[in-house]
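Pilot study result, target chain (206 residues):
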Amino acid sequence: MHLFKKIFENNKEDIPQELKTANEFINIKDIQGNFLYTNSGEIIVYVKVFAKNTKLMNKEEQSEHAKRLTSEFVSENKPFKIYFTNRPVDTSKNIDYQNTLLDYERDNNKIYFLTERMSSFYRLSSSGEALEGETFIVLWEKNVDYAEEELLKRANDMETRFRNCNYKTKILEEKEIIQLVNSYTNPTTAYDENQEYLELPMQITN
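Predicted structure:
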């Protein structure tokens, strides 16, 4: 929770608490493009790092992966923060899609796998464990001349470092930053789900 302390801390001005507006209390001045501007004079950029399952690697591969990450970031000499969070995932569309596939499927093997997949989605939904882990790199600068350019350069450099280690990354844009801030204050906030993969046919190989 320390990550958002810079954003959500109370202003130090001598203003009675009851007279503060919501924006003054959460210390957010504006969100535009790739930037969050604070009332206390910082600009913040968020880089999302998509998960990689290193448990699928053997011990030697894990060791080499750790060395590669270390070598990529050894020259990073400016502070940054790492924010880990879980967000609820809406599985209803996926369940509906599995039902649609079952209605038209005649192959017993595919029916079995589709049924098992649906059961796993139902278990996740009923248990409240339908969560997606997310990782964000947080970069900030004082709001001075050329701060935006400097931050974007750092963010792009950060993306390159992670890509060199086979991680997918994304610099958050305005709508995504708003969603991230909302998820901090309201964990049940809705996200726009990208369901394009549902249009792809499921293939089962022998």
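One observation from the pilot: Residues 33 and 174 are 5 Å apart (CA to CA). A full batch analysis is planned for the follow-on phase.
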